[in-house]
User: Which sequence fits this backbone?
DNA sequence: ACCCTCACG
DNA sequence: GACGTACGTGAGGGTA
């Protein structure tokens, strides 16, 4: 009779690990199932052990139930600083139980006890009965249970662990591990331990003195050191910690040992479960687990099962463009679509006849399902002219009809590089791409700030695949002789387009693994990926601009500019190009003899606002005129003229393009045109905002976060005085003025405001001195006072810089990384520049994360309350702009406010409220 | 292609 | 002791 062998599976521990290590999959019902999938493969692996020498004869999955256990009664801080489970993990907990049931395995949980205690109790009982035990977990606390006859098994690393593992990892025997853990403490579970003692020191003490109590008792006679003092001072904390890490092994077993006998795994419930979640590839590709088949073969003849394939990292074949196919027949198209279904994923790229995706025509679609397995489906070659001669290609309508089910199939992942473009193009043809991954966004979430990693495809291919893509220029030429993609011959078009899809798929494979392993899953899944289709919608929507209003302004500005020009030339005594800083510098500082030195390496005179304002203050009339001239020229060329040219001919609206990878901090950026820098600060400039209007019957609504970055700074640096001021709804700059100067008036409030911003940007006394027109010493005093009044700020600054230097990156509250390679530069000002950016990045980036989450939730929140005509049009970093029927304003305002104010939740709980200010009117200008 | 300047948060 | 003088963007005009 072979010996009984009980496997105890630490299900709760596993699911967290699977969540962080595995790609964030969703099933065909749109539910997140990455962790469930990982959990399922683990059970599968265990099922395959059945019948082997070291395999289980008995097995139980142990789960945590509820969060309050006897340890909380012992120490109310236990696990107190643990963040709530990620929102896409929560719905997976019940599915874990489904998965366990699908394998027909017993599942044990008990209120008041942690899974660890249940495992300890079963281990004790089984050992007493003379059984072998294997604990399936990688938890260090459970390693205390290792003893002869009891080992651990880490399925992810495929590693069995005994006493020697504990010895290499912690330097002690398993039975001494509890003492080591007690000294070390555990920041995740909030076990206090002894400050300053980590794994190394703890192990040294325990192996030297044998156990915790002996070490504590010996402390007074140890050599004097910080560690020794701490050992004495915190002895009670260590004793409490010892009790917290001890496993409770004497509970009544919820189910008797003998009930845990493994009998085999009926195939049917397992199959149903796998099919429900679309894990059927697991069954189909790898064969059922041996145990399941053993049961199934009795009923039906099943083909020889093979064990699930271990993930092998095979070298991909180099890119070979000769293997790409031009798809021009029904049969070929069907074959590619079937291949995509079989693979469960497909890289997609669309080719169009112009860059503007609102007006462009579809020219072709490329697909890739594996390395070099890529094709191009031409549909619009030969151009839009109905009568032009065209190459042989499938009709557009047919291709769209066949692609639609694939592109909308929940069980096939669509992969694209900068998908918002393709989403818009295909949405115009009635296709909603879902689900999707975007490699440009993945790249950004991994490598923002890494100077070597460009996120565009050509650069990404060079960096990550060591491959040079065919450039668009090579195919279409440049400048005047540039041709449209519709005119490119099919063979050349296929090489170019299919390569894009092929490269995208290869990049995706790399990034998918990295996202999971490098902690980018949170920000990718919870912030950026959902945003892609939202941004696509906003760009497609566009905003109405009153062309006549702009044209009137242009005319006004032209007249103003001309008048000023005459005056300036008169004052200068000669005509010159006012826009030329070179000529202007010569006039001001050489001919007219004003003071104001040369600047920097170029040796040119600086003529920027600060200089001109100084001259003006000295009484130079020309300086004021030049400032006015510059303002009007800027407004005319950058706004009133340029915006008119940007009004789309087909839609009569302006469609900006947002870059999701534009700003290193995680902010969006806006181009063609940039709608994030429309004037507002001066009255003249503000008129331009009034030209952004709503359709008749509609209004423009603008919703702003008020002081979001300062609020986040107060939260992140933990500044009680600032937090309190925000909680009380005070004027924050006035409150700062009160703290710093003891009185509030226009002057002190203004200075306080400057200092508040200086803090967000990484202050230097020189910089502050310049801004406030005080001496560096006075500025230094002011900074010191700020740190004194707002403790936490200086700690935040030093901490952030230190961490950035250590790890190379900073992180937002949502885990967005920004890399700072120059933080180790030997050139001082380069390094200091990186330090200032590092101070700012977590704050600016968290603010960006929050508004992005608000944007992703806005559509569903509005729709849920029946508001289908509210359109989100623009994002300006802390502001969202909507167009909506006048009658919806009240209801929409409440929803918008709620969504924006609560956008951090539940992932991040802020200790300050987020304020939202909302206004509306016939134009953007009027909405403020 | 680069610099300067200036519009925004 | 000199250095250079706040974070993050994009666009237009002048110059080389």
Assistant:
């Amino acid at each position: 009779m072979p010996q009984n062998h009980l496997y105890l599976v630490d299900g709760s521990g596993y699911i967290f690990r699977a969540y962080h290590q595995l790609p964030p999959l969703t099933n065909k019902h749109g539910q997140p199932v990455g962790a469930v999938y990982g959990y399922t493969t683990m059970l599968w692996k265990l099922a395959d052990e059945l019948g082997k020498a070291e395999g289980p004869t008995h097995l139980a999955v142990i789960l945590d139930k509820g969060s309050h256990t006897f340890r909380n009664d012992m120490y109310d801080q236990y696990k107190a600083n643990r963040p709530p489970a990620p929102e896409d993990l929560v719905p997976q907990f019940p599915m874990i139980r489904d998965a366990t049931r699908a394998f027909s395995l017993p599942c044990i949980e008990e209120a008041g006890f942690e899974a660890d205690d249940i495992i300890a109790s079963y281990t004790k009982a089984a050992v007493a009965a003379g059984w072998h035990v294997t604990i399936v977990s990688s938890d260090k606390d459970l390693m205390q249970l290792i003893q002869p006859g009891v080992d651990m098994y880490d399925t992810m690393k495929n590693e069995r662990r005994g006493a020697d593992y504990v010895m290499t990892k912690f330097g002690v025997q398993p039975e001494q591990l509890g003492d080591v853990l007690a000294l070390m403490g555990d920041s995740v579970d909030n076990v206090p331990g002894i400050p300053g003692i980590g794994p190394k020191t703890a192990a040294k003490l325990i192996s030297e003195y044998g156990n915790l109590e002996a070490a504590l008792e010996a402390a007074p006679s140890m050599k004097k050191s910080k560690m020794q003092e701490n050992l004495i001072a915190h002895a009670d904390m260590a004793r409490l910690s010892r009790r917290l890490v001890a496993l409770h092994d004497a509970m009544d077993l919820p189910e008797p040992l003998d009930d845990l006998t493994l009998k085999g795994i009926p195939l049917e419930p397992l199959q149903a479960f796998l099919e429900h979640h679309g894990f059927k590839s697991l069954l189909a590709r790898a064969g059922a687990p041996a145990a399941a088949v053993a049961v199934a073969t009795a009923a039906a003849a099943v083909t020889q099962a093979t064990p699930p394939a271990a993930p092998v990292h095979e070298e991909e074949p180099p890119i070979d463009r000769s293997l790409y196919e031009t798809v021009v027949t029904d049969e070929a198209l069907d074959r590619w679509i079937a291949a995509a279904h079989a693979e469960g994923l497909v890289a997609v790229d669309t080719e169009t006849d112009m860059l503007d995706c609102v007006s462009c025509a579809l020219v072709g679609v490329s697909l890739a399902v594996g390395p070099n397995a890529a094709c191009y489906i031409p549909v619009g070659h030969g151009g839009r002219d109905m009568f032009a001669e065209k190459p042989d290609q499938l009709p557009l309508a047919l291709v769209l009809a066949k692609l639609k089910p694939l592109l909308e199939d929940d069980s096939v992942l669509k992969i694209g590089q900068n998908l918002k473009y393709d989403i818009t193009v295909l949405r115009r043809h009635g296709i909603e791409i879902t689900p999707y991954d975007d490699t440009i966004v993945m790249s950004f979430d991994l490598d923002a700030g890494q100077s070597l990693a460009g996120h565009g495809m050509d650069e990404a291919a060079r960096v990550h695949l060591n491959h040079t893509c065919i450039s668009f220029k090579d195919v279409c030429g440049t400048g005047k002789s540039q041709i449209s993609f519709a005119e490119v011959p099919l063979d050349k078009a296929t090489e170019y387009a299919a390569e894009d899809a092929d490269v995208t798929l290869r990049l995706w494979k790399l990034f998918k693994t990295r996202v999971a392993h490098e902690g980018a899953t949170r920000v990718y899944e919870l912030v950026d990926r959902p945003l892609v289709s939202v941004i696509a919608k906003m760009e497609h929507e566009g905003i109405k601009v009153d062309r006549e209003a702009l044209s009137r302004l242009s005319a006004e500005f032209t007249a103003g500019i001309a008048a000023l020009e005459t005056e300036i030339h008169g004052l200068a005594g000669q005509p010159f190009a006012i826009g030329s800083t070179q000529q202007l510098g010569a006039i001001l500082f050489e001919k007219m003899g004003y003071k104001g030195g040369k600047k920097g390496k170029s040796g040119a005179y600086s003529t920027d606002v600060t200089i001109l304002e100084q001259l003006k203050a000295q009484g130079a009339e020309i300086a004021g005129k030049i400032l006015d001239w510059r303002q009007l020229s800027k407004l005319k060329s950058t706004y009133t003229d340029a915006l008119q040219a940007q009004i789309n001919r087909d839609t009569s609206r302006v469609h900006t393009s947002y870059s999701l990878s534009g700003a290193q901090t995680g902010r969006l950026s806006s181009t063609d045109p940039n709608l994030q820098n429309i004037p507002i600060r001066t009255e003249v400039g503000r008129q331009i905002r009034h030209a952004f209007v709503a359709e008749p019957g509609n209004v423009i609504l603008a919703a702003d976060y008020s002081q979001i970055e300062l609020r986040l700074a107060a939260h992140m640096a933990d500044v009680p005085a600032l937090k309190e001021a925000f909680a009380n709804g005070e004027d924050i700059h006035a409150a700062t003025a009160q703290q710093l100067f003891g009185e509030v008036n226009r002057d002190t409030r203004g200075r306080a405001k400057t200092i508040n911003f200086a803090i967000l940007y990484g202050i230097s006394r020189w910089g502050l001195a310049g801004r406030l027109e005080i001496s560096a010493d006075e500025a230094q005093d002011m900074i010191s006072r700020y740190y004194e009044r707002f403790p936490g700020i200086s700690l935040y600054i030093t901490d952030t810089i230190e961490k950035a230097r250590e790890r190379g990156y900073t992180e937002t509250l949502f885990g967005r990384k920004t890399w700072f390679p120059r933080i180790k530069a030997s050139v001082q000002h380069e390094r200091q520049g990186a330090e200032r950016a590092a101070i700012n990045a977590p704050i600016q980036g968290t603010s960006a994360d929050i508004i992005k989450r608000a944007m992703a939730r806005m559509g569903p929140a509005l729709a849920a309350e029946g508001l289908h005509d509210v359109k989100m049009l623009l994002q300006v970093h802390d502001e969202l702009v909507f167009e909506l029927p006048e009658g919806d304003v009240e209801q929409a305002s409440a929803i918008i406010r709620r969504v924006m104010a609560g956008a951090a939740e539940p992932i991040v709980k802020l200790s300050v409220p987020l304020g939202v200010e909302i206004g509306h009117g016939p134009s953007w200008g009027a909405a403020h």
Q: What stands out?
A: DSSP finds 36 helices and 23 strands in chain A. The first strand of chain A starts at residue 5 and ends at 10. The two ends of chain A are 83 Å apart (CA to CA).
